Amino acid sequence: MSHSLTPVMLAAPKWPHAQAKSWQCTPEMKLSKEVMVMRPEQCSLGSAGLYLRGVLHPNELLESKAPILRCGIDSILQSKERREPMLRGGPLAAPYRLRQFHLHWGSSDDHGSEHSVDGVKYAAELHLVHWNSKYNSYATALKHADGIAVVGVFLKIGREKGEFQLLLDALDKIKTKGKEAPFNNFNPSCLFPACRDYWTYHGSFTTPPCEECIVWLLLKEPITVSSDQIAKLRTLYSSAENEPPVPLVRNWRPPQPIKGRIVKASFK
Length: 268
Prior knowledge:
Carbonic Anhydrase II, twelve-stranded mixed beta sheet, 15 strands, acetylation, cytoplasm, EC 4.2.1.1, nickel cation binding, zinc ion binding
């Protein structure tokens, strides 16, 4: 069975998603000629010539002192130490270090993901942001076309997921913008589905200047969470504690045109 996946670009906190239609992106780096010249019909997933061999291998240990839980427009956890968990395999030529992960969700359960599959949107989308370990820092990696790898996991409504609840229970400590709290002994790989099949394409960040530095890896199989668990995300605020309360009920950007990008799959 073939699928179609609509690519998007990763969001950054300082750009309000309610104004997404007015954003103007001027990429600092261009996609390679090989990517830009491909015709749109070559992006039909599952068709001949787009099968990509390779298995993703996320590190299964998050150092106990590394993570900080932070409330922002989309950022949930960020590692501040050098011993970040690593991502290997698939289309990645080098190991990538986990920088942070965050979630995108909508005002209701029928939308919230920043990618769609066969036109279907999911209730939320988890992004695990990694940077290429061949560069000496995250900031340096941002300047290179192979600098960043983002693993995307779709969240669909169904049974409650216990591992996801561990994260949600900690949100009470960071209800408003700028709040931080330690978040120890959490294994991010517990948020991966059992099946590691994925789609991949070269893309960019959501917001200006939309640097073309991301290898996107979208896992085919969603994880299941309950409606109550997604509702917990909407209890956060995009406003600071001393500001008028602004509930964070929408932090996703609608899918963008594919613009010649090649989307490959690790499965047939």
